[in-house]
Amino acid sequence: MKPPSLKPGSIAIVGASETTRLGVIPDVSNLGLHLDAALNALADAGLKPQDVDGLASANEHPWTVALELGITPKWVDATNVGGCSFMLHVRHAAAAIAAGYCTTVLITHGESGRSQVAAPRYAPQPASLMGQFETPYGVSAPATMFTIPVLRYLKERGATVEDLAQVAVVQREWAAKNPRAFAREPITVDDVLSSSMIAYPFRKLMCCLVTDGGGALVLTSAERARDFPAKPVYLLGSGESVESPIISQMEDFTSSKAFRVSGKAAFESAGISHADVDHLMIYDAFAHLPLYGLEDLGFCQPGEAKDFFRERRTAPPSEGKKGGPLPMNTNGGGLSYTHSGMYGMYALQESVRQLRGTAPAQVEGAKISVCHGVGSMFSAAGTVILGAEA
Amino acid sequence: MSAPPARALPKPTPETQHFWDGCKAGELRLQRCRACAQSYFPPRPFCPKCGGREVEVYAASGRATLYSYVINHRPRPDMGTEPHSIAVVALEEGPRMMTNIVNCPQTPEALRLDMALTVTFSPQSEEISLPLFQPAGA
């Protein structure tokens, strides 16, 4: 099959920012967090809301964001596939700009995940697939669903709960270098394995944080990018897919089909190999996701992901221990940086910071960043590959 | 103290009614494509493998193996107060479904992956019996 015609590097991110505060924000609503992030990202791009002609958002409707900011969009994307929605927004926005539907796209996210100030409610209907075939068996929070495949993964891959714990330990090492990270105290494998049991085999420190926050991005064509004040970051490739809304129908509990499809499309459209990747973000709502992500994106063979953590290949230099060649989740991830519910936007923000050279835990000379998101419980995937150069 | 809330129950749709009627009658009903012989679940009036609409409902064996699970240590209010399994089982006929493993200690030692299971139906209301699974021979 012919690769997509969107040329790598032809679309750029020219504005990027998170909300002014992250963590516990009880005095701002869910929508207010969208708007705060949007104004920050627009200021970063040197734009006013009226300069925007394309709009995308997920957990508040674009029409609400449009009204509040005074934007009249000519292109809209309300795709909501959970926490990787923003990866899909970037991909769709790039196609829309290339097609001439709009010139300047604003993608917003805000989420009162912890304080629950005017936050949208998600309750499965009893007649839905989840309501009929999963809810009756006691599933509730993601910790009781997203985790169900993991015992099968551990058995098939020869991995252990210590491997899951090691993921959390390494991510915390990154978080310790980041003043905006929510959880920065160093932890050990023993700390993780003695934290409270949530849903066996998952303990509390293997599960993501619950915070408030948001972020926004501004995209335009690469030709216009140099007219903006911030250093542009270029879109090299992308991918997306969905699999199942209910975890029980995931085809293979040891591998995400959506991850594989999305990752392959992203690498093919960017025309890069895994050896070209300087920096990696893999959405870590739970400690098993980086293991699945490394394997399903093709960074290693099935069963080898655990070795990335045993050998500290994604870790920062820490207390005399060497850092690894593939820095991953360098903000601390959903496990230690922040996780308001839909984390993908924060992963994209960290990729942009790394390629601009402004990350708190900066990877020296990072030129290519792969940013991979998951939506709901392995239900969706979005992959964005960004470059410091077009 | 107020009584615990009633267990959250499914609401059948026209496409799934035969499955829930089967559970009420003590039968685990799957569907199968007449064209390509694929068995599938959840219910739908066509084959997810080939798209054919010529499908039939049949009674499955009720035999399964334990594919994967968690033990929820923070049960939902309608699920009691003790840690309980939330499992996915592989039916002998191929499809997988979510369930609870019952008549078995809710411990990692007792819940072994790939252990043999059989279906048991748990009446919840006039309309709904839930298909649960127990160790074979229990």
General description of the model:
The complex is a heterodimer of chains A (390) and B (138). Chain A has 390 residues and is an alpha/beta fold. Chain A has helices at residues 30-45, 62-69, 85-99, 129-133, 150-157, 161-175, 189-194, 222-225, 257-270, 289-296, 305-310, 333-336, 344-356; strands spanning 11-18, 54-57, 75-77, 105-112, 197-200, 202-203, 212-221, 233-242, 279-282, 368-375, 380-387. Chain A has 2 domains: 11-119 and 212-236, Thiolase/Chalcone synthase (Peroxisomal Thiolase, Chain A, domain 1, 3-Layer(aba) Sandwich); 139-210 and 237-387, Peroxisomal Thiolase, Chain A, domain 1 (3-Layer(aba) Sandwich), CATH 3.40.47.10. Chain A has 13 helices and 11 strands. In chain A, the strands form 2 sheets. Chain A has a 9-stranded mixed sheet, sandwiched between helices. Chain A has a two-stranded antiparallel ribbon with strand order 5-6. In chain A, strand 10 and strand 11 form a beta hairpin. In chain A, 62% of the residues are buried. The model of chain A has no long low-confidence stretch (mean pLDDT 96). The longest helix of chain B has 8 residues, at 17-24. Chain B has one domain (17-135). Chain B is built from 1 helix and 8 strands. Chain B has one helix at 17-24; strands spanning 29-33, 39-40, 55-59, 63-72, 84-91, 96-99, 116-123, 129-135. The A-B interface holds A 125-127, 129, 131-141, 143-145, 147-152, 155, 196-202, 246-249, 253 and B 7-13, 16, 42, 67-76, 79, 83-84, 86-88, 96-100, 108, 113, 124, 130. Strand 5 (197-200) of chain A pairs antiparallel with strand 4 (63-72) of chain B, so a sheet runs across the interface.
